[in-house]
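User: Second chain of the day. Same drill as before.
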Amino acid sequence: MKAVSVVTIRKELKHKSNEELAELCLRLSRFKKENKELLTYLLFEADDENGYIETVKQEIDIQFENINTDSYFYIKKSVRKILRLIKKFSRYSLKKETEVELLLHFCQKMNDFTPSIERNVTLMNIYDRQIATIKKLVATLHEDLQYDYNLELENIT
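Assistant: Same format as last time:
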């Protein structure tokens, strides 16, 4: 079965009643964890973006604490996993400020991490890429936010 385009789905959804839409959402949430997480964000956390950011930051902190530091291989693997989580949670929000906040927190945790990431080229490349991403995102924000985030970025680097 081939999936239809989003435009076609949108047109079809306009013809459904509220009850049918609710039933479709519930069915969708049963199939994938990401669908359920997105619905949770939209229904319960979208109104309090700062609370959402703090919740995700706590999750990032927990993930950093659980990193196996026996070898840099495991550290790299865990760091990539944390970045995937950050990207996923940023996609739910669709706000660039949220993504910048989460990436800043990630970079701060990378700086504070022991053993030092400076001993490993791959980890430094990951870190540098995230700094570049933050700079690119900050450039698209309002001037006041740019100033604030650039100050935070200078404190990190």
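Helices lie at 6-13, 18-31, 33-45, 49-65, 72-93, 96-112, 121-138, 143-156.

User: Great, on to the next one.
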